[in-house]
């Protein structure tokens, strides 16, 4: 009979256990030595008394981990490892590229400069605009921005996934851990991550700074996909001055015989004027009368553009080549005369005023302009005088109305246009210059009729360049003496302007006296020394030489053959005839030209627009010199416009014109809200990206951007062991239903596993860790 004892018998399994207790720690420590974390594991197998079990098998197994808590990694991974080359390139390189694109877009928006029509813009801006590449360039820039933003959004999604996965707060559930982990290595943008976080069904997500950054990133990425449309909304039709290029224009008349130039051109006075744009030399002359009453406009030189089409002519910004240049100068002063005035009844029954006598224009010039060389005016020691007879107009309503009377030419020797031989630098009182008397009065027909006999014109009362007297009480007559000179030559010129030009149009009513001549007077007015640019004209420089591509072809008086003139001379002479002939009635002395609207007068009639130019200038300035200069300028411009249709001889010139292109509008005059919006959104995007990058660099310990193996391997651990096993050959829906339903879907995070030093999915803060099935707790409270 066997003897029993209360002392527990040590079985072979117990020996095995003791051996494990003594050997296992050494083996584990050796395996952990490489990781620096000592750990001991005790495995106990026990049998209960009285139970017969197969050898080596126990009824209960308990794993006891007697392991110190793993030491957390306190420092973040270096950027080279955690972000990698792709991430650094996307964040750093992408940011630099975004800044570069913003800078280039700023160049497109503001590179036109402050000079009108981008005349001084940089070479690159002008090339893009003139080639009509502005829309395509902006579209390409927007495409680059969308590409960079998409790349950065993907990288930031990986970073945010890492941040929320390593967050100690309860943000990620077990069912989402795999997807979030994979998002660190491969993702299609921030949308899925936001969906996962919002589906975690916890308010902790809203308290997380990462979710708000991610939502902001999603919004910015979405809106910036439309950056091209937003930017293109700023484009406007913009006028850009083109580059100068050699072109061919019809610039000359063919040579004709001398007899063909003798036809009259009085019809020009009745033609509706077109005030073609021209270039003008700068002048500082002020036409204000001197103390002695001498008023002088100075030499006014204008170069005309041989382009018939009005719109094409207005678009010219540079013209370099040969063209017709007019030189005009007008001097006016108070006359010296022995004359009388009386009434006169015309053949039509109109009652006018008449002044007859002898005009001493040489003496008047000597007194008004002391020191003037009057030798060309004097013969036999006495200065020139000439008889005259002029008719004045009668005012309809008592307002001052004017006419001017052609007295003749200085010296009285001019017989035809070809005897002129004028030169631009000659003064207006030189030989063969035109002499006029301007007569202004508010006398009505009744006032003139009241004069029963003739009266002497008194010379005692002067007012600047006028003598003035009162034929009847309350009514006056003002007379001014004017010398005019108009010359046309061919010159090699450079016409240029930075900014728009506009050919003015006068408005006036045919059945009323209402009109507006301000725009036309602004073009021609010489009242004050204003620059051509201030009056919307091109600046003209008369060049002495020529460019290599074209010779200067100035007017010469050499005959090409007997009885003929050169094309240059012929063209110049025609334009001179178109202006001088109607103003002198083919040099007919004592011819009166009517320069009033509300009057009764007898003489040559001018087009109402020419009348308004003369009348309005005289009324506003009281300077007959300015009135004549503006009239001559308007008549010359209109005459050249009519002459253009007859020019047929081609000539090469260098010319640049404006082009209408699509370009960003000025932020001052137009809206640039599109650029401001995109620039602001890009600025916020950059701040968001770098905020995410800084958070990632400071807080992330275990993650690496765009690395897939570590993202997959870190899914292993106690929390996801069953799911990983089940998912080997099952769909996501099956795994979710079997492993993460009915309260099993607890919160997890990424951390160091407790059983070794590996990185894996562990329970997040606030969740209970459940022991392995069948595990016991020892007396010390350890599992």
UniProtKB/TrEMBL annotation:
TM regions (residue ranges): 83-110, 143-165, 203-226, 674-698
Region (Disordered): 1-74, 762-783
Key word Cell cycle present: no
Biased composition (Basic and acidic residues): 766-783
Keyword Repeat on entry: no
Keyword list, A-Z: Membrane, Transmembrane, Transmembrane helix
Protein name per its UniProtKB record: Uncharacterized protein
Species of origin: Neoarthrinium moseri
């Amino acid at each position: 009979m066997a003897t029993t004892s209360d002392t527990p018998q040590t079985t072979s399994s117990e020996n095995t256990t003791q051996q494990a207790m003594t050997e296992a720690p050494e083996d584990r420590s050796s395996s952990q030595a490489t990781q620096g974390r000592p750990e001991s594991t005790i495995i106990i197998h026990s049998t209960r008394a009285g139970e017969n079990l197969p050898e080596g098998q126990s009824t209960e197994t308990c794993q006891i981990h007697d392991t110190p808590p793993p030491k957390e990694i306190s420092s973040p991974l270096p950027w080279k490892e955690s972000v990698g080359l792709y991430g650094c390139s996307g964040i750093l390189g992408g940011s630099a590229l975004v800044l570069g694109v913003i800078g280039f877009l700023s160049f497109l928006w503001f590179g036109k400069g402050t000079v009108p029509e981008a005349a001084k813009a940089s070479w690159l801006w002008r090339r893009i605009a003139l080639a009509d590449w502005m829309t395509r360039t902006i579209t390409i820039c927007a495409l680059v921005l969308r590409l960079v933003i998409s790349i950065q959004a993907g990288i930031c999604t990986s970073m945010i996934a890492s941040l929320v996965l390593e967050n100690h707060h309860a943000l990620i559930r077990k069912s989402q851990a795999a997807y979030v982990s994979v998002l660190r290595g491969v993702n299609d943008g921030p949308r899925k991550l936001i969906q996962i976080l919002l589906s975690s069904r916890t308010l902790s997500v809203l308290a997380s700074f990462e979710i708000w950054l991610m939502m902001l990133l999603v919004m910015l990425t979405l809106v910036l996909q439309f950056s091209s449309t937003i930017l293109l909304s700023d484009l406007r039709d913009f006028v850009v001055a083109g580059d100068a290029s050699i072109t061919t224009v019809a610039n000359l008349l063919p040579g004709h015989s001398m007899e063909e130039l003798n036809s009259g051109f009085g019809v020009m006075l009745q033609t509706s004027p077109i005030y073609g744009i021209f270039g003008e030399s700068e002048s500082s002359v002020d036409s204000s009368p001197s103390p002695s009453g001498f008023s002088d406009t100075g030499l006014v030189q204008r170069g005309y553009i041989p382009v018939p089409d009005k719109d094409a002519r207005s678009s010219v910004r540079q013209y370099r080549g040969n063209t017709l240049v007019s030189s005009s100068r007008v001097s006016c002063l108070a006359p010296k005369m022995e004359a009388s005035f009386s009434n006169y009844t015309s053949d039509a029954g109109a009652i006018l005023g008449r002044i007859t006598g002898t005009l001493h224009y040489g003496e008047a010039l000597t007194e008004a302009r002391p020191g003037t060389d009057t030798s060309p005016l004097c013969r036999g020691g006495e200065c020139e005088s000439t008889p005259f007879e002029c008719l004045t107009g009668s005012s309809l309503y008592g307002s001052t109305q004017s006419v001017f009377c052609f007295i003749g030419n200085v010296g009285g020797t001019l017989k035809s246009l070809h005897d002129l031989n004028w030169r631009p630098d000659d003064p207006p009182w030189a030989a063969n210059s035109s002499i006029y008397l301007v007569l202004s009065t508010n006398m009505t027909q009744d006032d003139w009729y009241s004069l029963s006999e003739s009266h002497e014109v008194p010379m005692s009362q002067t007012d600047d360049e006028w003598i003035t007297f009162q034929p009847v009480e309350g009514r006056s007559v003002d007379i001014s003496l004017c010398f005019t000179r108009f010359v046309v030559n061919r010159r090699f010129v450079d016409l240029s302007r930075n900014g728009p030009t506009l050919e003015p149009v006068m408005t006036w009513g045919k059945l009323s006296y209402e009109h507006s001549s301000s725009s036309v007077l602004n073009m021609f007015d010489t009242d004050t020394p204003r620059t051509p640019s201030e009056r919307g004209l091109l600046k003209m420089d008369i060049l002495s030489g020529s460019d290599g591509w074209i010779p200067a072809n100035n007017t010469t008086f050499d005959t090409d053959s007997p009885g003929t003139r050169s094309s240059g001379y012929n063209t110049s002479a025609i334009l001179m005839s178109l202006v001088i002939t109607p103003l002198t009635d083919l040099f007919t002395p004592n011819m009166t030209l009517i320069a009033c609207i509300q009057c009764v007068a007898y003489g040559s009639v001018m087009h109402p627009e020419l009348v308004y130019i003369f009348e309005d200038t005289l009324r506003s300035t009281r300077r007959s010199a300015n009135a004549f200069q503006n009239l001559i300028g308007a008549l010359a411009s209109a005459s050249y416009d009519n002459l253009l249709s007859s020019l047929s001889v081609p000539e090469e010139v260098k010319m640049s014109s404006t082009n209408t292109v699509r370009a960003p509008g000025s932020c001052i005059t137009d809206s640039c809200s599109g650029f401001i919006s995109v620039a602001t959104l890009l600025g916020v995007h950059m701040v968001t990206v770098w905020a995410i990058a800084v958070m990632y660099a400071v807080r992330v310990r275990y993650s690496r951007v765009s690395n897939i193996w570590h993202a997959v391997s870190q899914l292993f651990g106690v929390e996801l062991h069953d799911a990983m096993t089940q998912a080997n050959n099952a769909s996501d829906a099956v795994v979710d239903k079997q492993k993460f339903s009915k309260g099993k879907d607890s919160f997890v995070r990424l951390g160091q596993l407790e059983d070794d030093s590996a990185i894996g999915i562990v329970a997040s803060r606030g969740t209970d860790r459940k022991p392995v099935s069948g595990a016991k707790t020892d007396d010390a409270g350890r599992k």
